C-alpha cells in the first residue's frame, strides 16, 4: 500500500453534468479510444475460476450484503457477500448467492436454512476494515463479531442480530432457497431470497418525509475486481424519457 494516496474520509458526494450533454436521440455512442474486436469466451472452456475473474472484474460495482445470522445453538455469524442485489419492492425482497466451501455449506447458509432469518447490513466507509476482516476463513464455531470488534444488537422481528456500526440494516425472512448446480451435477452455490420485514436506518441517512437515502451520509462500499473496493463520491442525473413527450422526434 506504500505510495498510495491517503483515503479522504471527508470527501463529499457531488453531482456533475451528464457525460455527453450534447447527445440527442439516435446519435451514436461508442468507445472513443479506438475500434476493437470482441473476444468470445465460452465459460465451459475457460472454467469456473476464470469465469469468476471475468464476473467480479466486469460486473462492477457490486453492492455488498453484510449478512448476520444466529445458529441453532445461539452462535452469531457475520460475513460479506457481493453476489447480492435487490429483487423487487413489493414485497421488498433481496437475493444473495452463497458459495459452497470445500463442498460444504458456509455457516451463513446453514444458519439461514435452519432459522429462516437473517439481517443484511450495508457496509459504510467508517468500518471498512472491520467488515473486510469478517471474510477470514475462521473455523466453524468462531464468531466474526468477536474477531472484528463489531457490535451485535437485537433485531425487532428476527432472532439474527444487527450490526450496530451499520447505518442501514434490513431484517429478512427466508422465502425461497435454490441450490445452483453445475453441469457436472455438483451444487456450487445456494441462492437465497429473503423478504425484508423491517428497515433500520440512521435518522440522518434517511428523510422520512420523502424516504430519500443520503449517499453522502451513508458512504456505502462496493466490490470491484480482485481485492478492490469502491466508493460512491460522484454521480449525475438523467431524467427517464417519456414516449408521450418524445414521440414527435421520430415522426
UniProtKB/TrEMBL annotation:
SUPFAM superfamilies: FMN-binding split barrel
Record-annotated Flavin reductase like domain positions: 57-213
Domain of life of the native organism: Eukaryota
Cofactors (names): FMN
Gene Ontology MF: a single term: FMN binding
InterPro entries: Flavin_Rdtase-like_dom (IPR002563), Split_barrel_FMN-bd (IPR012349)
Keywords: Flavoprotein, FMN
Family designation: Belongs to the flavoredoxin family.
PANTHER family xref list: FLAVIN REDUCTASE LIKE DOMAIN-CONTAINING PROTEIN, FLAVOPROTEIN OXYGENASE
Protein name, UniProt field: Flavin reductase like domain-containing protein
Protein species of origin: Umbelopsis vinacea
Lineage summary: Eukaryota, Fungi, Fungi incertae sedis, Mucoromycota, Mucoromycotina
Amino acid at each position: 500500500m506504500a505510495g498510495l494516496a491517503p483515503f479522504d474520509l471527508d470527501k463529499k458526494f457531488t453531482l456533475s453534468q451528464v457525460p455527453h450533454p450534447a447527445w440527442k436521440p439516435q446519435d451514436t455512442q461508442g468507445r472513443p479510444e479506438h475500434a476493437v474486436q470482441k473476444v468470445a469466451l465460452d465459460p465451459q472452456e475457460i472454467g469456473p475460476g476464470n469465469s469468476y475473474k471475468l464476473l467480479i472484474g466486469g460486473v462492477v460495482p457490486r453492492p455488498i450484503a453484510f449478512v448476520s445470522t444466529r445458529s441453532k445453538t445461539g452462535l452469531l455469524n457475520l460475513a460479506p457477500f457481493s453476489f447480492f442485489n435487490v429483487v423487487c419492492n413489493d414485497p421488498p425482497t433481496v437475493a444473495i448467492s452463497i458459495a459452497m466451501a470445500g463442498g460444504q455449506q458456509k455457516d451463513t447458509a446453514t444458519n439461514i436454512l435452519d432459522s429462516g432469518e437473517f439481517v443484511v447490513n450495508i457496509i459504510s466507509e467508517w468500518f471498512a476494515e472491520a467488515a473486510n476482516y469478517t471474510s477470514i476463513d475462521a473455523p466453524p464455531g468462531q464468531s466474526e463479531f468477536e474477531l472484528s470488534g463489531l457490535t451485535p444488537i437485537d433485531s425487532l422481528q428476527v432472532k439474527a442480530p444487527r450490526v450496530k456500526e451499520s447505518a442501514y440494516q434490513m431484517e429478512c425472512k427466508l422465502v425461497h432457497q435454490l441450490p445452483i448446480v453445475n453441469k457436472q451435477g455438483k451444487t456450487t452455490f445456494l441462492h437465497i431470497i429473503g423478504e425484508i420485514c423491517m428497515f433500520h436506518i440512521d435518522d440522518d441517512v434517511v428523510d422520512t418525509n420523502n424516504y430519500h437515502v443520503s449517499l453522502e451520509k451513508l458512504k456505502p462500499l462496493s466490490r470491484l475486481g480482485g481485492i478492490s473496493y469502491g466508493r460512491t463520491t460522484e454521480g449525475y442525473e438523467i431524467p427517464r424519457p417519456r414516449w408521450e413527450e418524445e414521440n414527435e422526434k421520430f415522426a
